[in-house]
Every structure is written in structure tokens, then in C-alpha cells.
């Protein structure tokens, strides 16, 4: 019986696979963190993909943070874990990069010192955007002999700048103007060629403590019908696609994650997936929305910071997507053109959120059948009516216990319902109850918070009880936001700039 018990214990023991891109080899067995000099073949794998292809159910994967980036394009589509023993993939802060060298044989000489190669990154909205036929410049993705190369916006500009790059989007080609006296076999060109850093397509998997940079596609994704997938403490910056994206019928939790300077949205979820974003930061992404939901997807955003994403709205709720925001801070650009949200035919709900600094919050188009609810929120610093809608859309609006300030109000048809003179009452509208006009005294453009004795702490109602109005983000969210201030991202990895 003791032997049987020992056998069962050994069967149920958690196996750990180790990965180390300095000391490992994909010819090793992956079962020890360092090579065993006395036993050939014993030691860590060199690549994350080798570990992914070697796992069985509920294995664990431990990746060494060597300071040297791992290659991207890693997909896990087998094994996974169980509810009792989820598979945990811990990067310990390791960086995964999509950059790689383009060999001389992949280039074709066009004229003089200009050569071309194929390039078609997964920057979906940019690829179909007719007004731009070049790379947008952020993130920086062209690297020549280890240094950032100049991003040209036209063929003419390329001809004037030796060492520059021009992405001719119309023909899906990347052109380089070689430095004077150089041939293509005498320079090192690195551009994004590897796809999503980590993509999960199985159940009960936790991915934690990784950084994705320069992916040809997204940072961290889920596909297929994988359920109970968690990404925790993952940072995605400088990628050609989204920071985070889930697809198909997957269900995903993103906790304490950050997306910045990605050439699409901070997050973009499609098909019939379900996603929760908790204490996440989605800022300064460069060519979509901050958060983007479409088709029949369902989402919850809790205690998230969504700010400064360019050049469109911070939130896209397209098709029949359902989005729920709780205790979130959403900030745009008051001097820019777009509002904070684009709504089509889905349902969007805001509770205890703070929205500020844009021309307007949302315009409900006549063709839209979307439903919008805003409760116990602060809406301020809008130069135009913060909501504009037609008479036929008013039945799909529900506003309650909000605080408005520094905005003309709500426009229904041709009428603007603003602050009543002489008191603090809200607009006289059938869909807006017990809202008020009052200065929320926000503490700065980003750190939107109030003192403990602020009237906003007891101005609202939640399920009939006194409640806070507006968002107060946990300190961990602001600390996460500060992680990517002043950093230097290069082919060698990530480091902080000198103070």
C-alpha cells in the first residue's frame, strides 16, 4: 500500500519545465534549471516554443530572465491545466521580442542604393486606412546596425535620407536607402518578423511576468475555445498589433497588465469571446482605440486607466459588443478631434467612472441602436455637449447620480440641456435622474482623485445606499503606469533612461 501511495504521489506531482536562452538547448530535456555537466542532455530548453510543444496537462514552465530577449511567435495549443492545477507559465520579467535580422538574400535591389523586402504587419486598422501610405513612426520598428533608423513618409523623403526606411503600404513592401558606401550584405537590418509573443489556445493557463516588444502582431492573445486563461503582470509595448487580444470563444482575465505604444489598440477583442480587464493600464497606443470590442464580445473593465490613445476614441463599442466599466479613469485629448467613445449597436455601462478631457464623450448616431447607461460618474472638461443624440434615441439612455462640470451639457435633437441657473440641479431630462453640476476638483490631468472628505464620496447612490461618485484607482495602477515612463526600448531589450 505504501508503494501504491508513493506511485500516486509521483503521478500527481507537478512537473516543471525550465527555459533559459543563455545556458539552455532545445536538445535538453528541460527538467532542470541549469545544464547537468555530468549527465548529457539534462538541462533547460533554450526556447519557449520548445517548452510549449513538450508540456502535458498541468505542467509548469519557468522562464529565466537572462536580460536577453526571447523570440516571439509562441503558441500553446496543447495540454493546458485543470481547475485544481492550472498550468502556470512564469516569465520572471523576461522580454519577448518580435525583432529579427532580415538576411541579405531577402532583399531585392531597386535602384541606386534602395532595396526592398516584403513587410505586412498585423496593424489591422492602419493597413486598411486609405489616408496613410507609410509607417506611422510610433512605435520605432526600424533598426540599422543596432541603432534606430529614420522613418520616411514618402519615396521622395526616402531618397533624401540615406539610412532611412519607407513602408510602401500600397504594395506591401519595405524600402531601405542604404548608407553611403554600404551594400545590403554589409549592414544589419532588424524589423518585426515574429508574431504574437504568447498565444494561448487551451484551458486553465496562467501567463505571468512577461514583457512583449516589437511583435509583428499582438503582445498577448487567446484563440479558439480556451477557457479560464489568465494573463497577469504582463506588459506589451511597441508592438505592430494590439497589446492584448482574445478571439473566437475564449474567456480571458487580464490582471495588472499594461499596453502602451502599440500600433493598434491597447486591447481588441473579437468574435464571441469574453474578457475581464482588472487594474490594467491602456495608454498612448497609436492607431486604434484604447479598448476595442466588436461583434458579440462581452467585457468587464475594473479599475482601469485608459488615456491618450491616438488618433481615435478611447473606447470603441462596435457591432453588438457589451462593455461594462467600473471605477475606471478615461481621459482623451481636449484639443483633439475625437470624443471618448464610439457606440454602435451594443450595450455600454459605466459605474463610478471619471471621464474627462475630450471635445465630447459620445455622439449617438441615428443608425445606432446602442444602449448607454452612466451612473455615479464624473463627466467634465468637454468643450462640446458631452452626449449628442436624436429624439428617437433618448429611450435607450439612462443617466443617474452623475456629476457634470465644465461642459455645455447634453444635446437631444437641436436642444442643449445644461446647468440650470441658480442651483446645482442636473438637466431636465426624462433619462437623467438626480445628476448635478458641481466642480469635482480633480487633482490633475492624469491622477484623477479626491480627498477623503469630498462630497463626491457620498453624492451618489448604489442600490439605494449612499455611494461614491467617480473613480479612485488603486495605487498599483498608477505605479504600473509609471513603469514605462522614461524607458529606452531597443533590440537589446528594455532599460530605464538615466535621470
The number of domains is: 3
Largest sheet: 23 strands, parallel
- The radius of gyration is 25 Å
Strand content: 35-45%
CATH architecture label name of the largest domain:
3 Solenoid
Runs in which pLDDT lies below 50 for 5 or more consecutive residues are: 1-11
Question: Quick one: CATH superfamily of the largest domain?
Answer: Single-stranded right-handed beta-helix, Pectin lyase-like
Question: What can you tell me about this protein's structure?
Answer:
There is one protein chain. With 499 residues, the protein is mostly beta strands. The chain folds into three domains: 97 residues, no CATH class; 93 residues, no CATH class; 285 residues, 3 Solenoid (Pectate Lyase C-like). The protein contains five helices and 47 strands. The strands form eight sheets. It has a 23-stranded parallel sheet that branches. A four-stranded parallel sheet has the order 4-14-16-19. The longest helix is centred in the first third of the chain and has 11 residues.
Amino acid at each position: 500500500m505504501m508503494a501504491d501511495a508513493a506511485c500516486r504521489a509521483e503521478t500527481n506531482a507537478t512537473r516543471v519545465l525550465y527555459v533559459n536562452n543563455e545556458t539552455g538547448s532545445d536538445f535538453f530535456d528541460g527538467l532542470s534549471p541549469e545544464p547537468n555537466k555530468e549527465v548529457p542532455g539534462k538541462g533547460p530548453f533554450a526556447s519557449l516554443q520548445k517548452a510549449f510543444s513538450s508540456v502535458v496537462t498541468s505542467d509548469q514552465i519557468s522562464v529565466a530572465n537572462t536580460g536577453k530577449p526571447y523570440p516571439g511567435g509562441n503558441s500553446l495549443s496543447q495540454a493546458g491545466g485543470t481547475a485544481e492545477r492550472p498550468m502556470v507559465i512564469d516569465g520572471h520579467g523576461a522580454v519577448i521580442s518580435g525583432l529579427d535580422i532580415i538576411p541579405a538574400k531577402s532583399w531585392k535591389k531597386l535602384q541606386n542604393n534602395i532595396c526592398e523586402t516584403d513587410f505586412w504587419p498585423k496593424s489591422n486598422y492602419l493597413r486598411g486606412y486609405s489616408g496613410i501610405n507609410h509607417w506611422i513612426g510610433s512605435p520605432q520598428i526600424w533598426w540599422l546596425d543596432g541603432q534606430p533608423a529614420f522613418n520616411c513618409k514618402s519615396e521622395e523623403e526616402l531618397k533624401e535620407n540615406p539610412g532611412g526606411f519607407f513602408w510602401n503600404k500600397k504594395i506591401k513592401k519595405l524600402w531601405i536607402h542604404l548608407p553611403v558606401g554600404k551594400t545590403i550584405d554589409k549592414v544589419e537590418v532588424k524589423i518585426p518578423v515574429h508574431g504574437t509573443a504568447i498565444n494561448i489556445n487551451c484551458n486553465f493557463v496562467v501567463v505571468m511576468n512577461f514583457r512583449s516588444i516589437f511583435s509583428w502582431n499582438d503582445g498577448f492573445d487567446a484563440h479558439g475555445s480556451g477557457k479560464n486563461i489568465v494573463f497577469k503582470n504582463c506588459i506589451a509595448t511597441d508592438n505592430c498589433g494590439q497589446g492584448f487580444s482574445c478571439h473566437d470563444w475564449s474567456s480571458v482575465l487580464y490582471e495588472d497588465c499594461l499596453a502602451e505604444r502599440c500600433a493598434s489598440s491597447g486591447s481588441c477583442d473579437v468574435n464571441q469571446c469574453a474578457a475581464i480587464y482588472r487594474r490594467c493600464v491602456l495608454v498612448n497606443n497609436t492607431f486604434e482605440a484604447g479598448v476595442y470590442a466588436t461583434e458579440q464580445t462581452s467585457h468587464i473593465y475594473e479599475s482601469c486607466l485608459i488615456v491618450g490613445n491616438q488618433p481615435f476614441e478611447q473606447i470603441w463599442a462596435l457591432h453588438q459588443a457589451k462593455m461594462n466599466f467600473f471605477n475606471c479613469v478615461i481621459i482623451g485629448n481636449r484639443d483633439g478631434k475625437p470624443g471618448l467613445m464610439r457606440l454602435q449597436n451594443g450595450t455600454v455601462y459605466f459605474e463610478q467612472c471619471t471621464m474627462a478631457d475630450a471635445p465630447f464623450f459620445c455622439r449617438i448616431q441615428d443608425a445606432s441602436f446602442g444602449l448607454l447607461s452612466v451612473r455615479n460618474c464624473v463627466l467634465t472638461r468637454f468643450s462640446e455637449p458631452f452626449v449628442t443624440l436624436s429624439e428617437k434615441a433618448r429611450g435607450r439612455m439612462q443617466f443617474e447620480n452623475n456629476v457634470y462640470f465644465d461642459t455645455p451639457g447634453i444635446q437631444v435633437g437641436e436642444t442643449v440641456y445644461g446647468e440650470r441657473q441658480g442651483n446645482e440641479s442636473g438637466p431636465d431630462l426624462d433619462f437623467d435622474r438626480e445628476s448635478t453640476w458641481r466642480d469635482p476638483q480633480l487633482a490633475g490631468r492624469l491622477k484623477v482623485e479626491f480627498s477623503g472628505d469630498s462630497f463626491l464620496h457620498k453624492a451618489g447612490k448604489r442600490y439605494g445606499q449612499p455611494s461614491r461618485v467617480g473613480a479612485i484607482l488603486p495605487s498599483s495602477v498608477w505605479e504600473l503606469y509609471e513603469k514605462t515612463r522614461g524607458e529606452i526600448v531597443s533590440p537589446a531589450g528594455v532599460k530605464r533612461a538615466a535621470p
